[in-house]
Design a protein that fits this description.
Radius of gyration of chain D: 18 Å
CATH class of the domain at 54-60 and 68-147 in chain D: Mainly Alpha
Helix content of chain D: 25-40%
Strand order of the largest sheet of chain B: 1-2-3-4
Strand content of chain B: 35-45%
CATH class of chain B: Mainly Beta
Distance between the termini of chain B: 26 Å
Strand content of chain D: under 5%
Low-confidence stretches of chain D: 1-24, 165-173
Number of strands of chain D: 0
Largest interface: B-D, 41 and 32 residues
Distance between the termini of chain D: 41 Å
Largest sheet of chain D: none
Largest sheet of chain B: 4 strands, antiparallel
Number of helices of chain B: 3
CATH superfamily of the domain at 54-60 and 68-147 in chain D: Cytochrome c-like domain
CATH topology of chain B: Methanol Dehydrogenase, Chain A
Structural class of chain D: mainly alpha
Oligomer: heterotetramer
CATH superfamily of chain B: Quinoprotein alcohol dehydrogenase-like superfamily
Amino acid sequence: MPFNIQHSTFLVRPELQMSEVIIDQSDFSEERATLEKTWAPARGVIGWLTETGHKQIGMRYIVTAFCFFVLGGIEAALMRIQLAKAENNFLNPDLYNQIFTMHGSTMMFLFAVPIMLGMGVYFVPLMIGTRNVAFPKLNAYGYFIYVAGGIFLYVMFFIGAGPDAGWFSYVPLSGPTFDAGKRADTWAQMITFSFQAARAGDVAQSHPAVCVVDGCDVDHGHLRDAGGNAR
Amino acid sequence: MKWSYKPKDINQSAKGIACCDWVNRGCAFANGKIFFNTLDGKTCAVNATNGQEVWVTQVANMARGESITMAPLVVKNKVLVGDSGGEFGVRGALTALDTETGKQIWKAYSIGPDADCLIGPNFKPFYPSDRGKDLGVTSWPPDLWKIGGGTVWGWISYDPQLDLIYYGTANPGPWNPEQRPGDNKWTCGIFARRPDSGEAVWFYQWSPHDEYDYDGVNEQILVDVPINGRMRKVLVRAERNGHVYVLDRTTGEVLSATPFVYITTSKGVDPKTGRLIPNEEKSPGFGRVVREICPASPGAKDWQPSAYSPVTGLLYIPHQNLCQDEEGVQANYIAGTPYVGANVKMYAGPGGHRGEYDAWDPIHARKVWSIRERFPVWSGTLVTAGNVAFYGTMEGWFKAVNATTGDLLWQFKTGSGIVGQPVTFLAPDGKQYISVLSGVGGWSGAIVPGQLDPRDGTAALGFVNAMGDLPMYTTKGGMLYTFGLP
Amino acid sequence: MMVGAETIQSALRPAGPEAARLTDLWWIFFWTCASFYAALMAFFVAAWIRGRQNVEPDVTPATERSHTTAVTAALIVSAIGLLALLVTSVAAGRAVGKFATNSNQLEIEVTGHQWWWEVKYPNPAAPNQQVVTANEMHIPINTHVLLRLDTRDDIHSLWIPNLHGKRDLIPGRVNKIFIQADRPGVYRGQCAELCGLQHAHMALVVVAEEPEKFAEWKKRESLGAPTPQTPEQVRGQQVFLGAPCANCHNITGIDASATLGPDLTHVRSRPTLAAGMLLNTRGNLAGWISNAPAIKPGAQMPPNQLAAGELQDLLAYLDTLR
Amino acid sequence: MCNVRRSPFAVRRGGSSASGQRPTANLFLLAVLLALAACHREQRSIAPTAISAARTFPVRVNNPYEGNAYAIAEGQRLYEQYNCSGCHFHGGGGIGPALMDNEWIYGSSPANIYTSIAEGRPNGMPSWGGHIPDYQIWELTTYVRALGGFEGRVATASRSDEMEAKRAEEPKK
């Protein structure tokens, strides 16, 4: 551990306590170099994949969510075309039901939830003045899980296994008797991905957020203190 | 071998309309002839001395799902034959054939207009709910009486003194009771009729609007016993709905009805109206799974006949101890195919044993002793003047017990499970013999000869769920065992 | 019978007391919300105009006080408005949810199927008087009608906007709803819960009529099918019994007691076919019989390959079922 | 993942169809993608053609619905509705033989099962040919094959719906 708080030389003058912290930076060059390396943006494809910066991840969430928003909008438009006149044959009932559920699921779980998550990931650390969320890798993992869920849903849709059991896939319509094949499973799988992503994102952010509520000393060592010894 | 007779042109497809395995409950001997029924709906008369066929009459119509499994009874030169197929949407009937020619003399339907049921001015049921015009039609939704079951596949009794025959009618179809609101007369009841004309004298319904396939076809024991200090001509019946009934056999009045097993489906019999009081909570219907229906569909006791000993004054009842879960589904009538509308899974009732052999005191309406068996006691029973009661088990044990105490006296392991009825006879050599058929099968034993798959608990109308281990205890067979008394 | 253009389906044109309550509630909500919205907009515009006129902010203790008073007043008015809406809404909910207890009532069982409605008039006292029909419900006016709702497959929801709100049909349960029509008319109802492919085409009509006319209709419905007269009709009956028809449909009076599809005993007296999708004409019926899934993809009625003569005979026979 | 095969019966309904409806806007891109990537398991023949409803029976060896989940589900529905379950129950058998074990009196190939359903068998199996349309016999065949474990778990429902699970509060019996 190059950066060890326990025997660091934080010199806190008792008379300036609570308002000012003066750090003697003279013998910190080595730690500084390590820190800068640690926080430097990674490069290349591998770098892109291993990126854990909250701004980057947050922005990815927001951009991806808007892509799904567009897809959901296209689905809405297709449904509206079908409904534009009575007894229309633009979409057959099967496809209509799939697009209906695709639209609902996309808008809820691939747009609404992730975009809020993305906003949170982007802004919460800025708002509480931390360098990143509490669990940056978990946060990145959450994003990729979310993308995987979305891609899975659309791949299944394009091979004819799009979910088609209403907004919330309720039984018995989504049960084996009325919904053959893997369509309900597709939906459930997508939800699993989406929820896992949401949970990962929430947990990743939770510590700084708790600190805000709790008023803990967020400037210091929050990364190290993720385990809970913030005070 | 003296002779053998094989009925000609037996239609093998009758196997597809026999709800509960391919069974035959016996034959009758009268006027030098042997009478028996075939599964495909024929009644045959064969000369007892040389095995020559005398006549064959087609009684049941297979195309409509009718078959025959019951043993005929000969009364006053008439062969009485009933049909089977309550699970196939048939219309039950009892037919009287001339013993000499095989011609039909009368036919009494169990459901339908009074004229078809041979209900006339002399019909005097004891309870008001059974009086009225064309109840066999009006107690059914439109047209459903035509396919409503009420078959006659059990035992017929004759009282020569009163000149009455007694027989029970089976369950209404389909099983799912929501599809047939109403009392569903005259199913699940007992008719008393004149053997000459077939006209009905009285009727009593064991289970009005039956919800659990409690066919009312069990045997009736006709005895004269003192009830409340008065000698009464009674009819004792251990009924599928779990009660032992004592009926006045001249009028059809219920003298007593006492539970002999654990019952959840009903709350007793109303002494005033004679009506079984159903338990609404256990009423099966569409989309619901009702748990702990006790007794299960085969009832507290199915067709296996009990025996009465005038020596001990006790009734010996072989029966089962089963409960079931049931789910109502849509029954769809297609002629010649099953018409049930229920998924059923049976299992052992309280105590975990599936069978019981009871001695019952009909006068005081109480159980005297009881023997528990692993499997349903699906064989008939026999009690002798020597105070010994015989019965068989589905594992294959043929047992003799003390009729007074129920102590096991002797047992013998036969080659297969026993579902037949033991008989005793005095042979020409002056010795007394006991015979019993060994060969498992029937509704309860179908898993063995039919090689059913116990992974599906609903198989064989749910009986397989309770009998999954039977193949480990016995194999199929078919052998007559005769034992000489020492 | 007037169906089609004459059939109305509108929650704002109530034809019964329950629907009237709901419509009143709707209008109360509409006008309350609209007036609040208008007031809010008026204040907003006023503030905007004032903001443009007054360059100097007017912050004296007196104006502070009057602002506080104004905000408090607005808060109180809003709270009262919301509370009033809550009270009216709960009151209306309780009123329409209450089951009538008087004897002047009729019980009807409505069963949802994929994708049609079975309507049954039970008669516990005389089960053989029971009447079964499909996608069509007749009710006498000024009578409380208790609908017992059940389903054999999915969750459905019965919505007859002119008579009442929605009520779900849930497998294994019996839900109840009371309706009453105050004036004769034909009201359209619709399944309001996605129930699969043809959810959109799962409609029924409610015919509210004078009690005498209703009794007459019910009496006619309780009769069995007439005996076919012409040779064509006789042949048609044979086609019905021999073709797949009798596997699924019931016709009281003949040997067809199947329960999968709608009861056809009086099929030609109904206004529509295919759960409100087609008008009940001979041509539509022919098309429906020949290839129902082409008209209603997913429908459980299979296509039927009948010879031309067979189809004509069958239609002739079905024509007698009125 | 999927066995891409076009079945003569499984006509996807895009807009044009045998019923003569106006072929309005076909689903251009989506339809093309669907057709390209159509997964046989997931194909649903929600509008069987009149031809497939024939009541005469060309002898086929290949099951057009093999591995098709919708056909299996439809077969299951028909199996209950046409009372197959009345004799064979849910595979365990009773009046008729068990269908979930590995003993097949008349053979287990799709053609064998089709023939058993269409023509019946002497020990009580009724013949359904002429009473139900051809494509339904194939759906039933596919479901029976699924009961016997021949259809693979990918297309078969993971559980049957008869006798739903116990509610949590109920005692285990």
